[in-house]
TrEMBL record:
<dbReference type="InterPro" id="IPR001138">
    <property type="entry name" value="Zn2Cys6_DnaBD"/>
</dbReference>
<dbReference type="GO" id="GO:0000978">
    <property type="term" value="F:RNA polymerase II cis-regulatory region sequence-specific DNA binding"/>
</dbReference>
<dbReference type="InterPro" id="IPR051127">
    <property type="entry name" value="Fungal_SecMet_Regulators"/>
</dbReference>
<feature type="domain" description="Zn(2)-C6 fungal-type">
    <location>
        <begin position="17"/>
        <end position="48"/>
    </location>
</feature>
<dbReference type="GO" id="GO:0006351">
    <property type="term" value="P:DNA-templated transcription"/>
</dbReference>
<dbReference type="GO" id="GO:0005634">
    <property type="term" value="C:nucleus"/>
</dbReference>
<keyword id="KW-0539">Nucleus</keyword>
<keyword id="KW-0479">Metal-binding</keyword>
<feature type="compositionally biased region" description="Polar residues">
    <location>
        <begin position="71"/>
        <end position="87"/>
    </location>
</feature>
<dbReference type="InterPro" id="IPR007219">
    <property type="entry name" value="XnlR_reg_dom"/>
</dbReference>
<dbReference type="InterPro" id="IPR036864">
    <property type="entry name" value="Zn2-C6_fun-type_DNA-bd_sf"/>
</dbReference>
<keyword id="KW-0805">Transcription regulation</keyword>
<feature type="region of interest" description="Disordered">
    <location>
        <begin position="64"/>
        <end position="89"/>
    </location>
</feature>
<dbReference type="GO" id="GO:0008270">
    <property type="term" value="F:zinc ion binding"/>
</dbReference>
<keyword id="KW-0804">Transcription</keyword>
<dbReference type="GO" id="GO:0000981">
    <property type="term" value="F:DNA-binding transcription factor activity, RNA polymerase II-specific"/>
</dbReference>
<dbReference type="Pfam" id="PF04082">
    <property type="entry name" value="Fungal_trans"/>
</dbReference>
Amino acid sequence: MPTKKVKDSERRRCARACTNCKRRKERCDGRQPCRRCIERGAVSECSLRPPRRSFSVVSALPSPLSECSDPRSTTIESRNGPLSNHTDGAPHGLQHEMALRFPHFSRLIRDDRGTFMFIGDSANHSFLQNVRRIVRRHVGDCIFVDDPLRHHMVEACPSKGHNMILDNGTAPPPKPSEDEARSLVLWYRQATHCILELFDDATICDSILDWLRLSQQPVDALSATYSLILAIGAQTCPEDYDEIAEKHFNYGRYVTLATLMDDPSIATTQCHVLIAMYLLAQSRRNAAFMYLGIAVRGAYALGLHREDVSALYDTAEYMTRERLWKGIRTLDLFMSASLGRPPATLETRDTSSKEHYSAMNDLSFIFENILTEVYAKRMITTECLTKISELHRSWAARFSSGQSVEAIDAHPHHETPREQETGPNIGVIHLKEAYYWTIMLLSRPFLIDYVSSISPPETGSPPNPSHHSSTPSPSRNILAQACVDSAVRTIELIEPLLTSKSTPKRLPFIVNSAFAASLIIGLSLFSDLEGSMPLRRKRLGAACKILEKFSVHDLVTKRYLGIVEKMIGACDAFLELQQRKRMEYNNDLISRLFGRVDAEPPARETDPTHETSRNNMAQWQGFWESEPAAMNQPTPSATGSGSTIHNKMSFGGLDEVNYQEEHSRGTMMQPEDGGNPSLPDLGDIGSFLTPRTLWFDAYDSGALFPMVGSSMLEFASLEGDQNA
């Protein structure tokens, strides 16, 4: 007899139960979180899973990832050709199906005001949580793992309340002398070299001096722009001009908001970019992110994103518009990558064109593709990796030839604001550290994958860090090695700033790269990657000194310094633990061979001398007999270079491969050209890399940050209302 249909009003169970109640076969009230999950204390695990769809239906529907990423994917295809056919169809549907299997929670982190802020995968903070997870597995609980601020976003707060703009920005600041103005402009150019060149360096200083000679400065765009330039110069100079910088900044921001907000213009966009740069150096990243958003919308309103539109103007106006767009792109991609948020700009130019070629703008294109093709989709495919690595090689070739409007190869050391000495070219440092950061961002998931596959040694076993839960492939090995190599080179690149007297006291781009490199070098100490362990440990100490230099005036850098110092303690504890285990293991082997007189023997019922001696000698006899044979065998390379790749079959559009080691019976095979036999031919990187899809969610066994549901957000909002 069929079951009688029940009306919705009379239904005793909800139509959609949470995943916990479904699994436990309990009655759910359908709320978020439900009553039973609250009673069990499992609020963070209470989620409503989307209805399951068939594979064919999912493949036919446009996925959210494709809708937001397809326009950007055309940028990488336009330069390197279309993607192969096997990336469409079934694999796309599989990717969408995988995305639907995970709860729709955001990674939120509290700022100093208690507000929840979003932090994505590319952010250093997200990577830091992965490092903590690995350190906990190898070392256990320590101050680095259990940092009380690990779920907080440290930022500087305004020092003078919410009415600071009206209270302190309406009055013009005191005029600097001409010598002071020249010095501040030079410090502005020094701190923003290659990343924010909004103005013509040949004329900007004279224009500011002419503006200062006016008996009364008008409240207009020039006053706002020049005040903000002087503010950044005072903010970055080594002298204690922070109060002067704050006065110029407050006045420049007040004039911008009071007179330039009605209509988009070049001056309005320039001022908002300068405000964002000042706030970024002041450790106020979220505020800078908001002002930069206004600048981006103004740029789109003016058509700065289209080179053909800018070409309609005269040469001077064309160069002004191009410089402004390049500065917006640089700030946008930097903040998007460092905070893990989607970029707000999209490049339509051919950034590799020789005419007016900009190395920094070309790097921004690489950043864009990494964020949109890798981190937005939370996966890495062989095709994407091949195309982005080709962009890296092309950029490096153009950088070496000096084809750039930044004149990057002209002066490795140039005149500094003090004029009597020469110092490191910060423009070159900005370019190179950004290049290394793109490599670290692209290869960082492979380093996490590589180190996560290493199992901690069991009790009584030799402390061999090469014990992997799965056999590492050559591609994963070399990409993890590239990540660590770029981190080491970043620290070596920045190190000369420690001894230079012409170094600005605030350099947020360089500080970010130093912190990212520190985390990568620290994580590499828990792996068996090729390289000198003492050298990496030394570079980690150098990174700590770099952060210490900039932490005096930067709250975010001070927080970074504390994290790196705690990580160094965890690394030293791990290395000491490995050394102790190695000594204990060796002592055990020695005692079995020669005996031990300084240890109390265990009590035995019978005399074990004869039996123990015979067992130990049999063990050592087997070891000695196997030693000559082992010495005649070739030493396998840690990078898996002695492997050949054989395609076996195709599944889901991606080739599965097996790596079979070739063992020679004598000496190692030497290449005909006398090169290093341990390195494979990387001319065709597509044939070398493992055709394997690396899913970010494979390591999401635990949340990087506390899961935040709707109830917690409502509670936080109520708490904020009560505090207000």
